[in-house]
Amino acid sequence: MNLPSLFLLAVASAHNQARANCSLVLCRLDYCNAVLYGAPMTIINKLQHVQNNAARTVLQMPKRTHAKPLLEKLHWLPVEQL
Question: What is the pLDDT of residue 3?
Answer without folding.
Answer: 52
